[in-house]
Amino acid sequence: MDSTSRRKFIKLCMTSVPALILAEQAKAGGTEGNPPVSSAYRTPNSLQRYIDPLPIPKRLAPYAQHKDETLFHVRMLEFKQQLHSQLPPTRLWGYEGHYPGPTIEAFRGRAIEVQWENHLPSQHIFSIDPHIHGAMPPTPAVRVVPHLHGSRTASESDGLPEKWFATGQMAHYRYPNDQVAATLWYHDHALGITRLNVYAGLSGFFLLRDNTEAALNLPSGDYEIPLLLQDRTLDDLGQLVYSPTHEDGLKLPQGTWGPEFFGDLPVVNGAIYPYLEVEPRPYRLRILNGANSRFFNVFFNLAKGPTDIPSLVPFHQIGTDGGLLPRAVALNGVLLGPAERADLIVDFSGLSGKSVTLSNNAAAPYPGWEMANMHHERLYELMQFHVTRPLSGKTQVFDMATQSFFEKLHEADSVATRDFVLAEQLDDQGHSLGVRINGKDYDEAVTELVKLGSVEKWRFINTTDDAHPMHLHLVQFQILQRQGFNPTTFRNGSLELVGSPRPPAANEAGWKDTAIVNPRDVLTIIVRFDGFAGRYVFHCHMLEHEDNDMMRPYEVIA
Fold first, then answer.
1. Which domains does the chain have, with CATH numbers?
2. Is 21 a residue whose pLDDT tops 70?
């Protein structure tokens, strides 16, 4: 056998190994901890698309009513769940044994209390890097702390990263819900392992409603669909693989922190390439980017293939992170960094019998600064909408042009301007050691003291090559502008702004709790620190970044 034939033979043998493993497990009745594997199972890279229905997270039922407050009980559990009908069940962590967790619904002005209980095993699903701050021994491997993202909540119920609790322990949090209706979400926030806990499955929707939203008569019930967008990598037995990389695509040893993670497969509401049957009518889609590092630039596409010329279905965005926009915005696509949300109205009227693909063209890493040599694949398709259901009854009549009164914050009311420099530390090979805010680690002393009720401008100055979604706990803010700066003069100690200031796009001109800072840009936001005095944090919501100290505390003082 010549060398060319030998190489082909070895390659054929290697590609046959997964199938042989699956076949042997099926004969033997499965491996320890895994169920018998059906002959119908496939490897993750050979799955059929759009054969499984989209799961809709169940609404969490309260367990008690005490005076004027509703009480909920939420357990964090390990379980197995099929992410695709052609895969074996995957080992996951989730709230109440579901991935994603059940949706919590609340009403403005009606406080709720949640008892969070850690029933997870003492061994983590993934290897932990013990060199990361917060994960160093003797810290237990398994620890959690839930954070209600976007909520105006007292510090003791905020889910601060260092307030974790271990297996067998619990925490009791109170959420006042004293803010406008919005698409919020809850997820784990444990110091040093947020990226691992969220990747294991610990996330879910929290929908806050109010009378203003109800008066708009928006699509509701079966016509209001939450969509949690994430990405995952699975091995040939359908189990989660967490394999971070450097920016140049170099994979890291197991149990080592890396600056980014990009999964091979799109997961929507806990399902890989699902479909949803819809009626030819308007739907309200609440989209959340819950990925670790991946940005999604989503659009609705009638084209049959991802490389075909797009045939776009236009839509309207009516809300963002913190609630409804001042007015609906007509769009063909919307960019979402990790943790950002978009409240959309998509009208499938006139599309009977057609399939609409929720598509994505965002580069990984975003914004794709090395386009000529991409190290991570784009996930071009996420799910499909099949317009195959008959129209049931009359469609709702709602007015997107005239929405609720919107309170705009004014720059003249700001009492202070704070600058935060985002800078990456590199080793001698040019690989990231982490990104810091103003050169400080998370556990250094608090430097930002803000007065309760005051208005401030915060400027994020991005000296790195990546876009960063910056998130503030406690508050919702408004974007004032973005503007470039001269990196040469900045290295010499002077911030020289260049180009014209760019106001926020119309679909960003609302309440936000997370906003993207582009490379070599300055993002200026205006914030009113309402709600509570106490300690909070702000950080990049790329989970790999926040876990390695791209996070700082701040304190609101009365």
1. 3-30 (no CATH), 52-215 (2.60.40.420), 221-386 (2.60.40.420), 411-557 (2.60.40.420)
2. no
